[in-house]
């Protein structure tokens, strides 16, 4: 039995499994970016039968023409809370994209022991920013409204939060595994 062939195969399998792990985490990262951008841009955070809204504006149905008309968010929404939700949602988008660029940079430019720390930290910062935006929105908006439900953009934002937390932790675990 040739032992050199066996050791090469084991090393090749380890490299192949690491490549699969990197491809999987990159796919999760890209999925996080897509979900987060859809959640922040799309207008489906809150629904009733006659209106739907997001963190940017509100669309109300005019019953005469059955046309959706854009209006500003109501003045009952505190502007400081609304500004916080908008700012932290934008910061989350920025940090999740920055972490993707850091991932690409680190994969090609840094040595094995130095990879993925910055990427993991940036992803966890994005997770924190999104958590703050979602917590403020959940606590301060639509609280007393009896009619209505959260829309798919709100749910996608929570999924993006979960994926950003997962990928941030995975990047840090992957860094430890590559040392």
What would your notes on this structure say?
By secondary structure, the chain is an alpha+beta fold. Helix content is 68%, strand content 9%. It contains four helices and five strands; from the N terminus they run H-E-E-E-E-H-H-E-H. It has helices at residues 3-41, 79-109, 117-140, 152-178; strands at 46-47, 51-53, 58-62, 67-71, 149-150. A five-stranded antiparallel sheet has the order 4-3-2-1-5. Helix 1 runs antiparallel to helix 2 (79-109), helix 1 (3-41) runs antiparallel to helix 4 and helix 3 runs antiparallel to helix 4 (152-178). The protein is elongated and about 70 Å long. The chain starts with a helix and ends with a helix. The model is unreliable at 3-8 (pLDDT under 50).
Key structural traits:
179 residues; 68% helix
Give the structure's gist in a few sentences.
This protein is an alpha+beta fold and 179 residues long.
Order of helices and strands: HEEEEHHEH
Q: Briefly note the structural class of the backbone.
A: alpha+beta
How large, in whole angstroms, is the Cα Rg?
Answer: 22 Å
Q: Determine the strand fraction and express it as a percent band.
A: 5-15%
Total of DSSP H or I helical runs spanning 4+ residues: 4
Largest sheet: 5 strands, antiparallel
Shape estimate: elongated
Give the arrangement of secondary structure elements:
Elements: H1 3-41, E1 46-47, E2 51-53, E3 58-62, E4 67-71, H2 79-109, H3 117-140, E5 149-150, H4 152-178
Helix pairs in contact: 1-2, 1-4, 2-3, 3-4
